[in-house]
Specification:
With 112 residues, the chain is mainly alpha-helical. The protein is built from five helices and two strands; from the N terminus they run ααααββα. A two-stranded antiparallel ribbon has the order 1-2. α1 packs across α4. The longest helix is centred in the C-terminal third of the chain and has 17 residues.
């Protein structure tokens, strides 16, 4: 469980440190984080760890008031927990599997 809390902390660090495109809610941001900050690599390509991380993120008390995110162009908005049940589709196993493939392709093109 410690891994999940550390991953949640990294997600919030990423979310608050950079300018982002518009997100409807935290589900959108999690889906973006998977690829753009290599969230899948940080989670060892393990969807079960990602689900536990997602639970940790959604239970975080900072989401009660919303997390302020800078958007491209300098404007800031607060994003919140998803209100509907459809958010899981944004970060479901298919989305996670595609992120694993995309990150692996990126790593193959640009080895570390």
């Amino acid at each position: 469980m410690i891994v999940c809390h550390e991953a949640a902390d990294r997600f919030f660090d990423w979310l608050t440190a950079y300018d982002h495109g518009p997100y409807h809610d935290v589900g959108d941001a999690l889906a973006c984080w998977l690829v753009h900050d290599s969230g899948v690599r940080q989670l060892a390509d393990d969807y079960s760890i990602f689900l536990l991380t997602t639970i940790s993120v959604l239970l975080d008390s900072s989401l009660a008031a919303g997390v302020t995110v800078r958007q491209r162009g300098g404007r800031s908005i607060a994003i919140h927990r998803p209100k509907e049940a459809d958010w899981i589709d944004k970060i479901g196993p298919d989305v996670f599997a595609r992120a694993v493939v995309e990150v692996a392709a990126w790593d193959a093109r640009f080895p570390r």
